[in-house]
Design brief:
Blueprint (H helix, E strand, L loop, with lengths): L1 H20 L8 E5 L5 E4 L10 E4 L29 H33 L13 H31 L3
Antiparallel strand pairs: 1-2, 1-3
């Protein structure tokens, strides 16, 4: 009984594949028109009847074939020959990584504090080299961008530290 059902399913799948391969070709009407300046225009809509400079273009039929179905995905199997790390070595690596990230966090927080101190809430001191007011405005804008970037870096490093195992 199961063999008959399997045969029927295979036959249905084969019929569906054959139907997909022998589908009808795509058809469209293309019109070629030339305006008074000699510019050629192509259109897929029929031009107005009063235009005498248009003619239908005969194109060969296009046959469309659907893409093949992607292969089924398989779950990745853990490799048996992959080297394993014992838990004490992994804890030591995690502690070293945490220390590195905390040092980076401290540096980035110091950089952020220095930028905010220079920015002074949006009104930093004008430098002697900024006789042109636009130079001052450009520096203020750069400071805002640098502060935003430093804040994003601090948040990113904190997320990484929080993701580490305790």
């Amino acid at each position: 009984m199961i063999g008959i059902e399997l045969t029927r399913m295979r036959a249905a799948a084969l019929a569906a594949a054959c139907t997909a391969l022998w589908c009808a070709p795509a058809q469209a009407q293309i019109w070629r028109c030339e305006n008074s300046d000699g510019v050629v225009e192509y259109s897929n809509s029929r031009p107005a009847r009063d235009r005498k400079d248009c003619r239908q273009v005969d194109l060969p039929n296009l046959t469309t074939i659907p893409a093949p179905a992607p292969p089924p995905t398989q779950r990745a199997q853990p490799r048996q020959d992959f080297p394993r790390v014992d838990s004490s070595t992994q804890r030591a690596r995690d502690a070293e990584r945490r220390q590195i990230l905390e040092n980076e966090l401290r540096k980035e927080e110091e950089r952020l504090a220095a930028l905010e101190a220079e920015y002074k809430g949006g009104e930093p001191d004008r430098l002697g080299s900024e006789r042109n007011y636009q130079k001052y405005l450009d520096r203020v804008e750069r400071l805002k961008v640098d502060i935003t970037r430093a804040e994003a870096n601090v948040a990113s490093i904190r997320r990484e530290i929080d993701a580490l195992p305790r």
